[in-house]
Structures are given as C-alpha cells and as structure tokens.
Amino acid sequence: MTAPSHGSGVGPLRVCSGSVSGVSEPATTPDPSPSHVRAHTDSSVGHLTLDRPEAINALDLAMIREIDAALDLWERDTDIQVVLLDGAGDRGFCAGGDVRGLHGQIVAGRADETATFFRAEYALNARLAEFPKPIVAIADGITMGGGVGLAGHAAVRVVTERSTLAMPETRIGFTPDVGGSWLLARAPGRTGEYLALTGATMDAADAIYAGFADHLVPSERLGDLHDALVTRADPHTPTELVLLFDETAPPSALEAARSWIDDAFSADTVPEIVDRLDARPEPEAQATAETLSALTPTGLAVTLAAVRSARQLSDLRAALAQEYGLVMWFATSQPDLVEGIRAQLIDKDRSPAWRPATFADLPSDIGAQALAYRPDVALWS
Is 169 a catalytic residue? Predict the structure, then answer.
C-alpha cells in the first residue's frame, strides 16, 4: 500500500535545459518544499527518478502530482518517445508510502485527506498502464506496495538480481491496493492468494513468474540500458532494447512451491486454508500457517474475497475502483488498520491487538460486506 504524508501539491511546471521541475514560487525564491522527483529529457527519453533515497523513495502526494505533471508534458511532446522510471539510491525503487501519515489522518478523522491521496495515486496507476508511449520501469531493489503500483503497470517492467517485491498490506491490518489485486488475481494458480494473504516477498525470478515483471537485467547493466534507450540504435523498440541486456532468470521458488500453495490456497475460507497448510508435510507450508495465524482476521478475509473478485473484473480500472472502496471501508470503519500501523511502525512492539482477534468472532460474510461498501465519491466519478 501507499499512504499519504502532508506535502503540498506541485505548482506550475517549467522546462529548462532539458529538465522538468515543479515550482510554486519564482525562480529567485527558494522552494520550501523541495522536489522528490527528478524529471528531465534525454534525446527522445523522458526520465523520471524518484528522489527520496533516505526513505527508499516512499511516495507522498506531492510526488504523485509531480509525476503526473511530467507525464502531461511528455504525452503532448512529439519528441518524447519513451518514458524511463526509476529510483534514486541503492536500497530500492520505492518502498511504498508514509503509512504514519495515514495513521494520523485516520486517528484525527480526516477521511477527506485519505480519499484525496488515494484518488490521486490510483489515477496515476491507471495512467501508467494506459500511457500512449511505452514506459520502462526499473524495479531495482525494494519495490513494495505503492512501488508495485508504479512499476507493476508499466509497459516494460525490469527487475534485477537485487529486486525484492511484495504486497505486504495484511501485515498492517489492510489489503493490497494500487492495482495489486489485479496483478495478484492473474498470477499462476493460487499464488496470487498466497502472496496477497502472507505478504511474502518475491525475488526477480518469482516476480517474473507471478506476472509482476517482464525482464531480468543485471544491475551493472542498467546504465547500458539507459544509454541504449537514449541512442535508440537498431533494434528500436524498448522491449527489443531491453532484450539486449535480459538474462534468463533462475528457477522460481514460488513456482516450485505450487503443489502445496495451490492445494491450500484453493480452499474457500482463510481458516480452511490454514487447516490445509497444517496438514501439509512441507515445512514451508507449516511456517505459512503460523504466519497467517498471527495476522488480522478481518484483513485476511477481505483480501481473499478481493483477489477472487478481481479475477472476474474487466480491467485494471475496475480493480482500482474496487480497491478504493475497500481502502475507504478500512479507513473509516475498521480498527485493525490503525492498530497494525501502530504495532509495526509507531510503537514497534509487533504485538497488534486485532479486533476481532479470531475468525470465530468474525462475520462469515465480512468479505462481501467490505466489497459492497461504496464511498461517498466514486473513484472514477
């Protein structure tokens, strides 16, 4: 997931010496809110770099608006043929967002701010998927939650040997969003349910196997890939250029675990999934049962329903609309999201007090209740 911090929006754009930057004051006045997105052009490439490495490039509302503003310019600029999206620093592409900010908003009852952020983020997720010019996303290093929402919907999705991808929302009492349910619903077999419920991490091989990425490029070759995109020598399409540097991924551990994952995660309910895992001989299945037993019953039940519902949806926009309803349902009516953030990221006691604490105390139709919720303002209104 990604959650908002309280940064201001981006002001008018200026283009100078091949760069695009957001400004809210004349050039002679220092900007009190420095940009965390670098946007510049290099030949026919529009290059966007998330530039908040101290926070593993975690997204805030201002960053989302800056990315959107650059795309506005480049969509109309006939000289720009490709967009390259990457992250600064050596830790990761994007770790998600400021969930502490989300916690503060919910506690203070500022649901309107929560809605503003997620509406902007989901609109950007859809735009990246639908952009008329190919977007090449480099998910090098940690790429989680909102980072998957940026990289996972690009036309060409590159991972490296350092990549770690995940949708870990159930660990904080929440559910996968940013179009994650759309990707998870289309993962092979029941791996989508497994990844969604457990928040398990994927390496490059797993991400390619699960449909979260397309190509493995060694991190030491990323500079060469950038140069090739800029020079646009033959072959000339972004996919053909990436294939010049693509390496065959090693065997996927996720694929190797399909037998017990498919058996357990095809069950109708989370308690039945846990029972099947407990009955399996594989140590990994036993460990997964223990993981699920420690997580939020509400978040798990709703997530299972959401992924299975997303399998029946027509497109990414429909999945994002479903996720938006779930986000606002959690933010306005469920205590587990606040409690999960508190336990994992604020007090860091790792001992959340889920309410309810057991599946026995959870309404059997909680997933249907959550999916039936309709926000005051629809996402695509």
Answer: yes
